[in-house]
Amino acid sequence: MSNDPTTDPRLRSWVDIAEGSDFPIQNLPYGVFRRPGGTPRMGVAIGGFVFDLAGVAEAGLLDHVAVEQSAFHSSSLNSFIASGRSVWRQLRARVSELLEISCPEIKGAPGLADRSLVPMSEVELLAPIEPGDYVDFYSSLQHATNLGRLFRPDGEPLLPNWRHLPVGYHGRSSSVVASGTPIKRPTGQLKGPDEPPRWGPTERLDIELEVGFITGRANSLGESVPINGAEEHIFGVVLVNDWSARDIQAWEYQPLGPFLGKSFATSIGPWVVTLDALEPFRVAAPAQDPVVLEYLREEQRRGIDIHLEVALATPDMPKAHVISRVNFSEMYWTMAQQLAHATSNGTPVRAGDLYASGTVSGAEAGTFGSLIELTRNGSEPITLASGEQRRFLEDGDTAIVRGFCGGGDRPRIGFGEVRGTVA
Amino acid sequence: MSNDPTTDPRLRSWVDIAEGSDFPIQNLPYGVFRRPGGTPRMGVAIGGFVFDLAGVAEAGLLDHVAVEQSAFHSSSLNSFIASGRSVWRQLRARVSELLEISCPEIKGAPGLADRSLVPMSEVELLAPIEPGDYVDFYSSLQHATNLGRLFRPDGEPLLPNWRHLPVGYHGRSSSVVASGTPIKRPTGQLKGPDEPPRWGPTERLDIELEVGFITGRANSLGESVPINGAEEHIFGVVLVNDWSARDIQAWEYQPLGPFLGKSFATSIGPWVVTLDALEPFRVAAPAQDPVVLEYLREEQRRGIDIHLEVALATPDMPKAHVISRVNFSEMYWTMAQQLAHATSNGTPVRAGDLYASGTVSGAEAGTFGSLIELTRNGSEPITLASGEQRRFLEDGDTAIVRGFCGGGDRPRIGFGEVRGTVA
Q1: Residue of B170, B254, B346 with shortest CB distance to A170
Q2: Between 20 and 30 A from A37 (CA), which of A417, B162, B205, B271?
Q3: How close, in Å, is residue A402 to chain B by CA atoms?
Q4: Which residues, in sequence order, are CB contacts of B91 under 8 Å at separation 6+?
C-alpha cells in the first residue's frame, strides 16, 4: 500500500485548502450531506468544502465507477459500502483524480466546480451510516482497569477474561445519531447506597471517547472472518462519543450488561475516513501477554496513530477547553481482533455495521476518555479554563471529540469532530 | 375490544380448516412466504393455507386498505408495520371479511380462491420481520432465579435490581433467522475451572423458549412510551428460540453481558399473531412486590394466556418428544412494562423491532424453558421417549417451540412452530 498514489504526500488539489485542514486531497473521507431544503447526497470532504458526488455523477464523471446512481442519493453510505472493497478503491481513485491539481475535468468545465463544491458551513452533515448492528468493545487496558477499580473497588480491576478476548456487547442502533444532535439528559432508575431506587434525570451524564470501524458485508451466517485479512472487510473509521449515564448504568448492569445507561444516544462523526487513507499511519499495536488463542493471533499487529482529544464548552465558556488527549495506537485489542472475535461464532456482519473501540484512555492523568475516570467517579472535579468545575456534564455543556493523523510535514488526515450539547 | 367482530367465536370461513388447526379465521397471523422460485410476498395463515395478500391486492380486493402495494411484495412485514395501528386494523378487518363464509368476493370469482390460497407445505416461510434492534429481557422470575443459582452459586440468586426493573440487554439483529434455518454449532472460547481458555465448538448448546413482541414505530429520540397505552405500539407476538452456548456465555459475560454466547442465532416463528387476535386471551399478570416506580405502574396488568411447549427430535427419534410445558401468563414483567422501560431514556423504537421476553420458566420440574434448567446445568440428564439422554443439544437434534391460546370450545389461536436443527 505504500505506493498507493491516493496517499502520496506530494499530491495537490486545485481546490483551495487551508493550511492545517483535516481534509487535504490525501484524505477524501465519505459522508452524507443535505443542502438547505434538499435531500441527502453522498459527499467527500475536501478542505472547507463538500464535494457533491451525486452532482458529479449526474455530470457523467463517475460513469466508469461501478456504483449505482441511487447510492449517491441515499440517506446513508450503506449501499455504497455494500458494493465492496474493489469498488471503494475505484471511487477513491477516481475522486482523487478529479480533484488533483492538473485534472481539467471539473475545474475546466464552466460552472461545474461551483456546483460540485459546497461550503461545509452551508450544509447539514448527516450520520454517515445506518448501522444494522452496533457493537461496543472495551479494548483499552487502561480504561478497563480504571472502571474496574471504580465499579468493583473490592475486586481485581481486570476480570480474568479481559486479556483473553476483546470483551464487548451489543449497543442500540436506533440511537446512533449525527454529530450536532442535541442530547437530552436521560431519565432512569437511580439508586444510592442504602436507599430504594428512585426515578429521575441522570446526575452522572458522561462522555466516552471512542473510535469506531465500519464494515462491509463480511460473512454469511455460520462463517467466521479469519483474523489475518480481517481488515479487508473494514470500510473505514469514524469518531464516536458513546454517551453514558453512570448512575443508571451502575444500578441496571448486572448481570446482563449495560442497557439504558448507554442506549439513549451514541454520536458519530460525519466523516468516515477509509482504511486506505489511514494506511500511512499504521503502527505496531502493543504486544499481548498472555499469547492469545490462534483465532485472534495476528501475523502483524497493527494499530492506528490517531491523535484524539475531548474538549468541553459551556454556556459561560463558548471556547472549548481540552480536557483529555490520548493516542488510539495504545489500544490493546486491534480492529482485526475485534472483527475476528465478533464473528468467531458465525454471526453475520452487514455493510454499514458499527464496531466501536470502547473508551480510549491512556495511563497518565489528562489522557482519560471519560469524566468518570478524569474525576475519579466525581470525587475530584476538573477545573475548566473559565474556572468552572465539572464532575459530570451539566445542562448546556457541549462535548467535542476530535481526531487526526499526521500533521506537521505530513498530510493531516483528520476526522473532523463529533459534537453534542446537553439539552 | 370484546365486541371486535374479527375475534367472534361464531365466525366461520369458506376455507376448509382442519379441526385443531392453529389458524382459524379468528387468528389471521401475518407472515412472509415465497413460492418455489418466487419472490417474497406477504401472507396470512388460514387453516393449512397461506392467503396470498399480494395476489389478493393485485386482484383489486384491498384497494380501500391504506397499504402501499409494495408492502405486499416486501421481504419482511416491516413496511406494513410502519403504517400504524389504524391500518393494521383496516387490513385485519378486510381479510376477515374476505375469508368469512358468506363473502362471495373470492370464493365466487372463478379461479381466484385457488390463486389466493397456497398450501403451506408448498411454500417457504421466511422470517416475518427484519428487526432494527433486538432486545432480550429476563422477565421470568423463576428463570432468573434458576440461572442465578447456577451461575452464582454462592450469592443471592436474584440480584437486587431484578424486582425493580425488567432487566434486559441488546442482542444481535443480524442473526435473527427464520424457523427451519439450520443452526451451526458455534465455536468459541471455552474455559473449565483451573484450566486456561481453549478454542472449540460449544459443548453446552441450549435453547431458550421465549415469546417476543414486535413494535410499530413508537417514539422519537428523546421521547418515552408511557406505560399506560404502551400496547398501542405493539403490532403482534411471535415465538422465539434464543439459542445459547452456555460455556461461551459463562466465560465471556462479565462485566458487559452476553455476547457471542447468544449472537450466533435467534430463531423466530413464521407467524406474527396480532394483539387484536390475542385480546380474548388476556389475563391478569402476577402481582408485583415491591410496588414498582410510577413509570412502570400499570392501571391494569395484563399477561397473555399462551400455552407454550418445547419438544426435541433426534436422528433416532424423528417424532418429537415434549420436554417442557409452561404458560406465558406467569411472566413477572409485562410487555407494556418492557416497552415503557426500554424507552424510558428516550431511545427510539422502530417498526419491526423485536423485544423477546427472556426464557419462560415455571416453578415445577417439566416447566423450564431451557436445558440448563431442565438438567441442572447438565448434571441431571433428561431421558427422551427413545431412551436417549440429553444434557445439552447434540448434532442432529431438532428443537421445536410451539405455542397456542384457547382450544377446546374456544377458537385455537396458534403461533405455529419455531424449529431448528443443529447442523
Answers
A1: B170
A2: A417
A3: 24
A4: B62, B65, B67, B80
> CB of A177 within 8 Å of any CB in chain B?
yes
Name every chain B residue with its beta carbon within 8 A of the beta carbon of A251: 161
Name the domain boundary from B126, B143, B161. B126
Candidates A199, A257, A259; nearest CB to B295: A199
| Domain limits for position A200 | 134-421
State the pLDDT at residue B3. 81
How far off is chain A from B189, nearest CA to CA, in Å?
8
For A246-293, write each residue's pLDDT tens digit: 999 999 999 999 999 999 999 999 999 999 999 999 999 999 999 999
Tell me the residues of chain B between 285 and 304 that have a Cβ less than 8 Å away from chain A: 290, 293-295
Domain end call among A126, A142, A169: A126
Nearest chain A residue to B264 by CA: give it: A347
Distances (CA, A) of A111 to A56, A237, B412: 12, 33, 69
Say if residue A40 is in the same domain as residue A122.
Answer: yes
Do A138 and A113 reside in the same domain of the chain? no
Residues B356 and B320 in one domain: yes
Contacts of range B154-163, beta carbons closer than 8 Å, 24 or more positions apart:
B159/A254, B159/A255, B161/A189, B161/A191, B161/A197, B161/A251, B161/A252, B161/A254, B162/B138, B163/B288, B163/B289, B163/B290, B163/B332
- The reported pLDDT for the residue numbered B150 is 86
Identify the closest residue of chain A to B158 by CA–CA distance. A255
Question: For residue B112, which phi and psi values (nearest 5 degrees)?
Answer: -70, -35
pLDDT for B2 equals: 57
Q: Are strands A398-407 and B187-190 parallel, antiparallel or unpaired?
A: unpaired
Q: Which chain B residue lies closest to A218 (C-alpha atoms)?
A: B174
Contact criterion met (CB < 8 Å) for A248 and B171: no
Q: Which of A242, A251, A333, A347 to mutate to test the interface with B (most CBs of B within 10 A)?
A: A347
Question: A255: cis peptide before it, omega within 30°?
Answer: yes
Query: Under an 8 A CB cutoff, do B221 and A175 touch?
Result: yes
Residues of A involved in catalysis? 143
Q: Is this complex scored with an ipTM above 0.90? A: yes
| Residue of B151, B245, B348 with shortest CB distance to A174 | B348
**Closest CA of chain B from A410, distance in Å:** 39
Same domain, A97 and A77: yes
Kindly state whether residues B184 and B252 are assigned to the same domain.
yes
- The rounded mean pLDDT for chain B is 97
Model pTM score: 0.97
Residue A421: the pLDDT is 98
CA distance B148 to A318: 50
Q: What pLDDT sits at residue B185?
A: 98
The pLDDT of residue B153: 87
The set of cell numbers assigned to B412 is 385455537
Give the model's pLDDT for residue A1.
45
B210-264 pLDDT, tens per residue?
Answer: 999 999 999 999 999 999 999 999 999 999 999 999 999 999 999 999 999 999 9
CATH of residue A400's domain is 3.90.850.10
- Looking at chain B from residue 147 to 166, which residues have their Cβ under 8 Å from any Cβ of chain A? 148, 151-152, 159, 161, 164-165
Neighbours of B63 (CB within 10 A): 9
Together in a domain, A163 and A113? no
Residue B155 and residue B109 in one domain? no
Angle at B408 between CA B407 and CA B410, to 5 degrees: 65
Give me the pLDDT at residue A150, please: 86
B143 annotated active-site = yes
Q: Read off the pLDDT band of A3 (50, 70, 90).
A: confident
Mean pLDDT for all residues in chain A:
97
**Mean pLDDT along residues B6-16:** 97
Domain of B62, CATH number, reads: 2.30.30.230
Q: Are residues B389 and B416 in the same domain?
A: yes
Q: How many domains does chain B have?
A: 2
* Cα distance between residue B176 and residue A330, in whole Å: 35
C-alpha cell at A141: 487496558
